Amino acid sequence: MSHFNLSKAIGLAILSAAVFVFEITLTRIFAIQQFHHFAFVVVSLAVLGFAVSGVLLSLRSLHINLAWICAGFSLWILLAYLTINLLPFDSYSIAWDQKQIWILLLYFTVAGLPFLFAGWVIGAALTLTGVKAYQPYAANLFGSSLGCILALFLLEMLGGERTVLVSAILGTIAGLFFSMRRREVFILGCGLIVITICTCWMPQAFQLKLSPYKPLSIVQLTPDAKHADTRWSASTRIDIVETDSVHVFPGLSLNAGLLPPKQIALFTDGDGPIPITSLSADDPVTQQLAEHMPSGLAYRLRPDAKILILQPGGGLEAILALNSSAEEITLTNDEPLLSELLENEYLDFSQNLLHEPRIRRSHRGSRGTLEAAEQPYDIVIYALIDAFRPVTSGAFSLTENYLLTVESFSRAIDQLATDGLLVVTRWLGTPPAETARTWATLITALNHSGVEDPSSHLIAYRGMRTGTILVGKSPLSSSELKITRDFLRINAYDPIFLPDLEVTELNQYNQLPEDTYHEVYQNLLADFDSTLSNYFYDISPPTDDHPYFFHFFRWSQTREVIASLGLIWQPFGGSGYLVLLALLGLMMMIAIPLAIVPFFILGRDRPSISSIGLRIPLFFAFLGAGYLLVEIPLIQKFTLLLDRPSIALAAVLFSLLLTSGIGSLFSTRIPLKLALMLLFGYLIALIFILPPLISLALPWNEISRFLLASGVIAPAGFLMGIPFVSGLRILEKYSTGFIPWAWSINGAISGITGVIAAIVGLEWGLSTTLMMGACAYILALITNPNRLLQKKI
C-alpha cells in the first residue's frame, strides 16, 4: 500500500463509515437495552480498540492482508451483537454477584473488538504510506463523517438491529476494495450475501432484548399486555404497549374517586410509560381529572388562559388544559414520533386531540419554542412525563436536560404575561432531591428576572409522590392564596410553602415523621448559599453550561454508597459518578500500557528512549486528549441547539471529521505551529461566543440550526485535522517505522480523556472542558516535535 490508490482510498472510507455507523448504533443499543452508563462507554471502547491495533501493528509484519482484517471487523460485529443480545447481564445484581462482573467485561471486550480490526486497517494505511499519511488519514475522516449522517438515516429507516448488520455489510464491502485475489473476492462476496439475507429477514436472534428491569420489560409481564409496535427514529425508539394495567396520572389526588380512563403506554428507549389517554375535553371524567391533578390550581387561578405546555408527551396535560376553557394551547414538538402516532394510528383513540381548534402546535422543541414565543402566556407548564428515577441509582447522572436549567426557567418567566403563572411538577424523594433542586433553580431564575423577594411569588405543595411549584410573574395576592388553600384542602395536598404559611397547615394529609420539604424550601429562601453548601445532596441550580439536573452526588456520600454495595436493589449501588471514577481507573490500567508497549517493541532496532525523549509521545498524547476534550463538550452544547442528543452527536461528528479531513490535506501547506496557535485562539473564542449564539439561533428552523452548527465547528475541525498528520510526517522523517506507536498513543490517551471529559463536565461545566481542550493544544504546541527534526538536520 505504499502507493495509496483510489481503490484503497474508497475501501478505507467505506470501512471508516462502517465504524461510525456501528459506534453510533451501539450507543443507542446500550442505552435502550441497559442504561445511560453503557452508552457512554462506547466512545472509550472505540478509541481503546484503535490503541490495541497500534500494538498489533508493532508486533506483526506490515505485509498483512487488509481484506481479511475487514472481514474480521464484520464478523466481530455480528459476534459482538449476538453476545450482548443473548448473554443476559443483570446490572442490578452486579454489587453482589461476581459473575456479572465477568459478563460485563465480556460485553465490553467483544464490543471493542470490531474497533480493533478497523483501527488495524487504518493504522496500517497510515504506516505504509509514511510521510504521505495525510492521504489515508483524510480518507478515514471523510468516510467517518459520512458514517455519522448515514447512521441517522439507517436508524430511522431500518431500526437499531438492522443498522448493526448494515455496518457489517459495509465492512465486507470495504474488504472487497482491498482484495487482491479471486478467492478473497469470492469468500467476501459469500459473506456479504449471508449478512444481507440476515438483514432482510431478521432472524429472532437479532431482535434486541432489554434488561428485565427496564420499565418496558416489566409492563410486558402483565397478563393482558400487547406489544403493538416498535418505532425507530434517528434519536429514539418508541414501543407501544396496549394494556388495561397502565394508569399514568402523576400527582393525581387520592380524593379524586374516579375510575381511570383507558390509556395506551408508550416507552421511549425502554423507559416510561408516557400515556396516550382516550378522553375528550368535555368528558365528565376529564373535568374530575382537571380538578384533582396538581396543575389544576393554575387553571383555577387563570381561567380562559393562553397556555404553553412544554414536553406535552402523549397529550394528557393538553386534555386537562382544554377542559379549563383555555383560549389557546401551544404544544411543543420534543419528540416527533409521538406527534406522528397521535396524528395517525392513535388519532381516533386520542379523540382527535391534535386537531382540536384551540390547539396550536409548535414545530420546535421546548427551548426553541420558549425563545421564539411571539406573545405572552398566561400559564407555562413544565409537564411531568419522566418516569420516577431513584436518586440512589445514579443511572441518569450523565443525562443532560436543558429544560430544567436556570436559563430555561428565566426565559419562561420572561414569556409570562404580567399576572402569568409558571407550573413545574417533579417527583418526590427523601431527602428531597428533584423538587428541592427545582425550587433552588426557580429562586435563581426569579433573581435573574429582577425579582428581589422571590417568596412573594412562590407556592409549593405536595401529594403522595409528586411536588408542584407555582411561580407568579407578579406577587401572589391574598385572594389567590385563598383559592390555593381551597384547592389543597379539596385534594388533600400538603402545602410546602405559601407566602403567608402557618406552621399548623404543614404535614396534615400525606404525613411524614418530619416535614423536611418545608424546612429545605424555607432554608433556601432564608440562606441560599449556606443551604446549598450543607445539604446532603448537590441541589445547586443546573445551567446551560452545567445541565445535569439528575446529578446529585457529593463526595460526602461516598462512604454511604460504598457501605450500601450489595445491600440495596439499585444498579451500581449508588452513584453514576462513582461509576465514572471506576471506569477512569480501568481505562488508565488498560491505556497506559498500550501507549508504552509499542515503543519497546519498535525500539529494539531503532533509536533509544534517550534519543527520542518525551517530546514525541507527549505531543501525540496532547493531540489525543485535545480532540476528545473539544468534541465531547461541543456535542453536549449543540444538543441544546439541535434538540436531541443523537442529532447533535451526528451533526458535530460529521462537521468535525469532514473538516478535519480537509485540514489534513492542507497539512503540507500550513505550518504546524501556526495551526495550533490559531486553533487555541478559536477554541477560546468559542467559549464566549457559543452561549449567545445558540440562544440567538434557538428559534430558527432545523436546517438553519444545523448549518449554523456546522459553520461554527468547521474552522475548529479544519485546524484540528492538521497536527496529527503533521506529527506523523515529522516522526517518519526523524525515525522511520514509529507511526504505530503514535497511533497507539493517540487512541490510548483518547480513551482516558473521554472519561475525564465527562467528569470535568459534571463537576465544573462544559466550558471548562472546552477550555481544557484548548490548553491541550497549547501543550501540543509546546511539545512540537519539529525541534527534534531540526536538531537531526
Summarize the structure.
The protein has 793 residues and is α/β, with parallel strands linked by helices. 59% of the residues lie in helices and 9% in strands.
Notes on the protein architecture:
The chain contains 28 helices and 12 strands. It is α/β, with parallel strands linked by helices. The strands form 2 sheets. The protein has an 8-stranded mixed β-sheet. The radius of gyration is 28 Å and the shape is globular.
CATH superfamily of the largest domain: Vaccinia Virus protein VP39
Number of domains: 4
Given this structure, which CATH class of the largest domain is correct? Alpha Beta
Mean pLDDT: 86
- Measured by DSSP, the beta-strand proportion falls in 5-15%
List the helices and strands and how they pair.
Elements: H1 6-33, H2 36-59, H3 66-86, H4 98-129, H5 134-178, H6 182-201, H7 215-219, E1 226-232, E2 237-242, E3 263-268, E4 271-277, H8 284-292, H9 296-301, E5 306-310, H10 316-323, E6 328-331, H11 336-343, E7 359-361, H12 366-372, E8 377-382, H13 406-414, E9 416-427, H14 434-448, E10 458-462, E11 466-472, H15 478-491, E12 494-497, H16 516-526, H17 528-534, H18 558-564, H19 576-602, H20 609-612, H21 615-642, H22 645-665, H23 672-697, H24 702-720, H25 722-734, H26 739-764, H27 766-782, H28 786-792
Parallel strand pairs: 5-6, 5-8, 6-7, 8-9
Antiparallel strand pairs: 1-2, 2-3, 3-4, 9-11, 10-11, 10-12
Keywords:
Rossmann fold; 793 residues; 9% strand; four-stranded antiparallel beta sheet; globular; eight-stranded mixed beta sheet; Growth Hormone, Chain: A; 4 domains; alpha/beta
